[in-house]
């Protein structure tokens, strides 16, 4: 056998061996930025022997149920307050293993160019889950629109509103349906991933936008039983690379912020 043939055979065998030994995991993501970012993570992880398959979920409820049931090995779509709430309500044995990105939530309107233009008694939709709905109420409080009871923490509800000078009517909708509510309300609070899906610009279009602070950094979650497995470290390290950070900054231009 010639040296060239031996070299080719050696390369083929090495590639086959790497493919054969690669570990495959399924990761649940929501469509939009989370899925797009993990497409950038996949080749980084593959170089370390981890094959990532993405499973897209259209809402915020099913990914944790699927993870807890073992249908997927990890998910990337939520922040810590949301995860804590899900664990308290449903008893899931899953936990965070690494931080990812922050999506400042925005308030959008098709009818008004500024939040001040919303008339007294105007309708405003907010997400119906405690974490994201609470985020919006905190945003409104921080902007001086409403006042909340003391000690409400990170998950206030409309029942915690103590002052509402504009007499806004809050309509709670599923987060995924928020863009559709825009035609029927004066303003709608929409999570960044659903805003981008609807063709909205999360930097330029909101009439109010959350400051990128607080506990709302998103995370990678796995089952508690898996947290110390070698693939988890590879997964997190692959996400936390300059290559992925550069992709986020270039692709989303400030709508999504690296937070590790």
From TrEMBL:
Cellular component per GO, a single term: membrane
The protein's matches in InterPro entries, at most eight in alphabetical order, are given as:
Lipoprotein_NlpA
Superkingdom of the organism of origin: Bacteria
Which subcellular locations apply to this protein? Membrane
Q: Where is it predominantly found?
A: membrane
**CDD domains, sorted:** PBP2_lipoprotein_IlpA_like (cd13598)
* Annotated signal peptide: 1-22
Q: How does it sit in the membrane?
A: Lipid-anchor
Family membership, please give it: Belongs to the NlpA lipoprotein family.
Identification of the protein by name: MetQ/NlpA family ABC transporter substrate-binding protein
- Which organism's genome codes for this protein? Bradyrhizobium cytisi
């Amino acid at each position: 056998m010639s040296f060239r043939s031996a070299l080719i055979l050696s390369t083929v065998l090495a590639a086959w061996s790497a493919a054969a030994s690669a570990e495959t995991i399924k990761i649940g993501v929501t469509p939009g930025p989370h899925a797009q970012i993990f497409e950038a993570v996949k080749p980084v992880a593959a170089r370390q022997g981890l094959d990532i398959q993405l499973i897209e979920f259209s809402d915020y409820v099913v990914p944790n149920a699927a993870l807890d049931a073992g249908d997927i090995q990890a998910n990337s779509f939520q922040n810590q307050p949301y995860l804590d709430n899900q664990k308290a309500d449903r008893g899931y044995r899953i936990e965070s293993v690494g931080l990812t990105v922050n999506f400042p939530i925005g308030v959008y309107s098709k009818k008004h160019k500024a939040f001040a233009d919303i008339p007294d008694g105007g309708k405003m939709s907010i997400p119906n889950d405690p974490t994201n709905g609470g985020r919006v109420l905190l945003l409104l409080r921080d902007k001086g629109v409403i006042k909340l009871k003391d000690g409400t923490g990170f998950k206030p509800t409309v029942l915690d509103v103590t002052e509402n000078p504009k007499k806004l009517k809050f309509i709670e909708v599923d987060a995924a349906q928020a863009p559709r509510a825009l035609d029927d309300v004066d303003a709608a609070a929409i999570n960044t991933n659903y805003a981008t899906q609807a063709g909205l610009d999360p930097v330029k279009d909101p009439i109010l936008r959350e400051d990128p602070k607080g506990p709302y950094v998103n995370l990678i979650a796995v089952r508690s039983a898996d947290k110390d497995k070698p693939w988890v470290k590879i997964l997190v390290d692959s996400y936390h690379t300059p290559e992925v950070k550069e992709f986020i900054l270039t692709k989303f231009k400030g709508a999504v912020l690296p937070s590790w």
